[in-house]
């Protein structure tokens, strides 16, 4: 089964959105790098982005059936969503939480993650490398399952 990479709100604007915080890569650039890295590890990926909390929940439920692991950047819902926390808890495949920016070094409202306590692990602050390391971690979880 593929690794599902799920992206939350505003991540469709990467490249033009606060490049000093999030870098100059577009989400399509990140997808391309993720596809190549996963392929090197012997995995295919499904890469998705939504600005809607309910759609992300539906995709976590879909991943429960169709993914071997999930790399998840919930965007700002990280800091607000009990529903996404519950969805991550409710599903079987390991979920690796990733963030481009170092949320602990930013505004206080970004310091708490509702996802971290439900996720297998979290990788934060490393830009594209957060995603690539997330894929490596996901592959490791799958192999030791
Ligand atoms: C983010 C961090 C969140 O605080 C923010 O709301 C985002 C992106 C990141 O990848 O750094 O939208 O998840």
UniProtKB/TrEMBL annotation:
Pathway: Metabolic intermediate biosynthesis; chorismate biosynthesis; chorismate from D-erythrose 4-phosphate and phosphoenolpyruvate: step 3/7. Substrate binds at residues 73, 79, 86, 100-101, 110. The active site is at residues 22, 99. One of its GO terms (biological process) is aromatic amino acid family biosynthetic process. CDD domains: DHQase_II. Its EC number is 4.2.1.10. The record marks 17 as: Transition state stabilizer. The keyword Lyase applies. Coiled coil: none annotated. Keywords: Amino-acid biosynthesis, Aromatic amino acid biosynthesis, Lyase. GO terms for molecular function: 3-dehydroquinate dehydratase activity. Homododecamer. Belongs to the type-II 3-dehydroquinase family. Catalyzes a trans-dehydration via an enolate intermediate. This is 3-dehydroquinate dehydratase. It comes from Maricaulis virginensis. The lineage of its organism: Bacteria, Pseudomonadati, Pseudomonadota, Alphaproteobacteria, Maricaulales.
